[in-house]
Design goal:
alpha+beta; seven-stranded antiparallel β-sheet; 2 helices
């Protein structure tokens, strides 16, 4: 029984060392995170209980090597609430010290739109007009070790008429 415990300890120790080695190798590259900014939101045809939009993203690569991707997923929060999510099978490469403009179709539930309309109508929109605060999370798939994750925040102008303005 004592031998079994030592074996398990040895396996866990080996896994821990391997994990630290992989983390160490990744940090030695000095790679910076990609920078992603929301640059637009355009209406798309939707269904009865949802709105569809094209989320326009500018993705910048501040690294010495290109970032290849094979798909993208995003989640957009508006004023602290979940607002839209979407995926795209788009493939491409962001050149070293370069940038690309990506368009990701996203779905917005009718409930999310109503929640935002109610918040703006009650005067809880500190930025005024159709400009509202957002937080974006996502992942560029396919670039080894699960892809490249990103996050950003800022303000965006919603399409006219989306929130009843």
């Amino acid at each position: 029984m004592l031998t079994l415990n030592r074996r398990h300890c040895a396996r866990y120790l080996a896994l821990a060392v391997a994990g630290m080695a992989l983390t160490g190798c990744a940090s030695l590259t000095g790679a910076e995170a990609v920078r992603v900014n929301v640059v637009g939101l355009e209406p798309l045809p939707g269904e009865l209980m949802e709105a569809r939009m094209a989320l326009k993203l500018r993705v910048q690569n501040p690294n010495e090597t290109a970032v290849d991707y094979d798909g993208i997923s995003v989640e957009l929060d508006v004023r602290g609430n979940s607002f839209a999510s979407g995926v795209s099978p788009e493939k491409g490469s962001i050149p070293r010290f370069g940038e690309v403009l990506l368009s990701v179709p996203v779905s917005v539930s009718a409930l999310a739109v109503l929640r935002q309309v109610a918040g703006i109508a009650s005067g809880n929109n500190s930025t005024g007009n159709n400009r509202i605060e957002y937080a974006l999370r996502g992942r560029l798939a396919g670039s080894g070790f699960g892809g490249v994750r990103f996050a950003s925040s800022g303000e965006i102008e919603l399409p006219k008429g989306l929130l009843g303005r």
